[in-house]
Design a protein that fits this description.
An 8-stranded mixed β-sheet has the order 1-26-10-5-6-7-9-2. It has 17 helices and 26 strands. The termini are far apart. Helix content is 30%, strand content 20%. Helix 9 crosses helix 11. The protein has 631 residues and is α/β, with parallel strands linked by helices. This is Nicastrin isoform X4.
């Protein structure tokens, strides 16, 4: 009897210098008895160890330091359970300074992420699975049963099928695996949208641009359990709520500055989205048509804001590129706070003792142009308040919806004030800018939970999702990168973000009665909600996809190749060029087998019986022969 086990694998990723992540060591499945780490002080046979998340770092530490113990561990099963999460002081498999190599300053020893262990950046030649809640219970019973069966002739084993194509082919880095087509580059599609839409054909002078940025991807030790509730999805939800509020505000069309919202993907893997966005702007590609890098006056990034109300402290922190360059933005934020009539919400300047910006997309802009004016709004000052940064535990329980609403309220009004370019703004105009708290709650359920998950009414209003449970892992680039990609090559979340932004920033089209996409032939028209009924609606909106993948990669003749470092690409030298190994199937199951010791005993017994039978037969034959001769 085979029992299929639900779980989330750690998979093999590669870069220009080697590998990280997990894989079976060869071409075959790994089969081993299930044992518990807490009771397995000494292993005498190859085993699949079950470990609770609070012992995860202890186990990996022992694997590094105890060669004899490590030799007998051939697979790891990680238990799930909210009760363990509540008692943890912290768990982050990322580094203490995530992506320090991309920072526009030298201070790699600074600890933005104090709980970081760096475990996700190492290579493991054995399979590791995070178990679902139901599978955790089943495997715990199996491990206990094995402990009680020490004198029994049967044992329950785990069968790991985590065979990676790069392992089978021996391609151990990104360049070789791309050449042999055993892997694909990490990446996907970012989205940007202008409010109001940009009239590209207009003869009017282009307005200065205020760029508002958030990220939609995160990382985790376990590929398909990348939730990122606080970091960065709280910022994404805040941005979507800001767009919704401003789309309903009075006088947005008459603002002196152009608001542009950008949601990047691939930021957890070398700032793929923001770096590619800047390169597309340099190349004046179709993906950024209507947008000019020289017109971007300031950048406001909404970072991790989901823990802004932690322990009754309702303070957010503004991390700025330079004090003088961002005075206008910081002043607008204070004016916005004053208009909210809520004395409990505060935004403070980040500590001057910080070496610079925290890990953020704004780093890409600052590397591109050191004089960039920008602010990152975060829920922390000198170190992350998110103790589960880049782990599967950064889930819905880790954030506060009120903090997201508060951050969105401050940002929405700040943008209106800043885009009005020092004009006197009536209080009545600001009072029309209010965040829809119900929308925030709905987005939390859609983007951070399996129920309702992407099956929620809001998402289904725009797209037909391929799965219910959302995952914010960046994924891999499918097909040829394009500014108008085939929908099947774009993930559920980017497609939803594109449709949501296109809808909220749109002005009605004369062709609203036309079915699209064929009917959307007017200037600036796009088709929204086409997935839901096969028809969609034509609207005028400047909303576009931007491919997000390494600036060191080129797609040509249906294959990917690595480009030499370009000196003009200031972050290219540090770019690891991340890829993900292909695989045929990933499967985990358990079943009962006879203990090998029992098999050995049966074999020896059989040999003994055979030998004894031969001896007895020979003796009997000799006795009978002798008796017959006597007669």
């Amino acid at each position: 009897m085979y029992m299929a086990i639900d779980g989330y694998p750690c998979v093999r990723l590669l870069n220009l210098s080697g590998e990280i992540g997990c894989s079976n060591p060869g071409r075959a499945n790994i089969v081993a008895p299930v044992a518990r780490f807490k009771t397995a002080n000494k292993l005498v046979e190859p085993s699949a160890l079950m470990v609770s998340i609070d012992q995860f770092e202890e186990l990996f530490g022992r694997l590094s330091n105890d060669a004899d113990f490590s030799r007998h561990v051939v697979g790891i099963l990680v238990e799930s359970g909210s009760q363990l999460q509540n008692g943890l002081k912290g768990f982050s498999p990322d580094k203490k300074f995530p992506q320090a190599e991309f920072a526009p300053y030298r201070s790699g020893s600074f600890e933005w992420n104090p709980t970081g262990s760096g475990l996700m950046w190492k290579a493991y030649n054995f399979p590791v699975f995070l178990l679902s809640n139901s599978s955790t219970s089943a495997l715990q019973e199996i491990a206990l049963r094995n402990e009680k069966r020490k004198k029994s002739y049967t044992v329950d084993v785990a069968d790991f099928n985590l065979v990676m194509q790069t392992t089978k082919s021996g391609t151990r880095d990104s360049e070789s695996c791309l050449r042999e087509q055993t892997c694909l580059p990490l990446g996907g599609y970012s989205v940007w949208s202008a409010l109001p839409p940009i009239a590209i054909s207009s003869s009017e002078k282009a307005k200065p641009v205020i760029l508002i940025v958030a990220s939609m991807d995160t990382a985790s030790f376990f590929r398909d359990k990348s939730i990122g509730a606080d970091s960065p999805i709280s910022g994404l939800i805040s941005l979507l709520a800001v767009v919704d509020a401003l789309s309903r505000a009075d006088g947005v069309k008459g603002l002196d500055k152009q608001l542009v919202f950008a949601v990047f993907t691939g930021e957890a893997w070398g700032y793929l989205g923001s770096r590619r966005f800047l390169l597309e702007l340099d190349q004046h590609s179709d993906a950024v048509s209507g947008l000019d890098l020289a017109l971007i006056e300031t950048v406001l990034e909404i970072g991790s804001v989901g823990k802004g109300f932690a322990q009754d402290d309702k303070t957010f922190f503004a991390h700025s590129t330079s004090e003088t360059a961002t005075n206008g933005m910081l002043s607008a934020i204070q004016d916005a706070l004053g208009s909210l009539n809520n004395q409990s919400i505060k935004v403070s300047r980040a500590s001057k003792s910080n070496p610079g910006l925290p890990p953020s997309s704004l780093m890409s802009f600052l590397k591109k142009n050191p004089k960039t004016s920008g602010v990152v709004l975060e829920d922390f000052d000198t170190a992350f308040t998110n103790k589960f940064y880049h782990s599967h535990l950064d889930d819905l329980l880790n954030i506060n919806s009120s903090a997201i609403v508060a951050a969105a309220s401050v940002v929405a009004r700040s943008l209106y004030i800043l885009a009005s370019d020092k004009k006197e703004i009536k209080t009545s105009a600001l009072n029309t800018i209010n965040i829809n708290a119900s929308l925030v709650e709905e987005l939390l359920g859609c983007l951070l939970s399996c129920e309702p998950g992407l099956s929620c009414e809001l998402v289904n209003r725009y797209i037909a999702p391929s799965a219910s449970c959302p995952s914010h892992y960046v994924g891999v680039v499918l097909g040829e990168p394009s500014s108008q990609p085939y929908p099947g090559n774009v993930g559920d979340v980017p497609r939803f973000v594109w449709n949501f932004l296109a809808d909220k920033t749109a002005i009605p089209s004369k062709n609203m009665s036309s079915a699209c996409p064929k009917g959307c032939s007017g200037t600036g028209e796009v088709c929204v909600k086409a997935e839901t009924d096969g028809k969609g609606v034509c609207v005028i909106s400047t909303t576009r996809y931007v491919p997000a993948y390494s600036t060191r990669l080129k797609y040509e003749s249906d294959t990917w190749g690595v480009l030499p470092h370009n000196s003009s690409d200031t972050m290219g030298e540090a770019d690891p060029v991340w890829t993900e190994s292909n695989w045929e199937t990933i499967k985990l199951r358990v079943y009962t087998v006879q203990d090998t010791r029992f098999d050995t005993w049966v074999l020896l017994l059989g040999i003994t019986v055979t030998v004894l039978s031969y001896i007895i037969t020979a003796m009997a034959k000799a006795f009978i022969t002798k008796a017959l001769k006597r007669d």
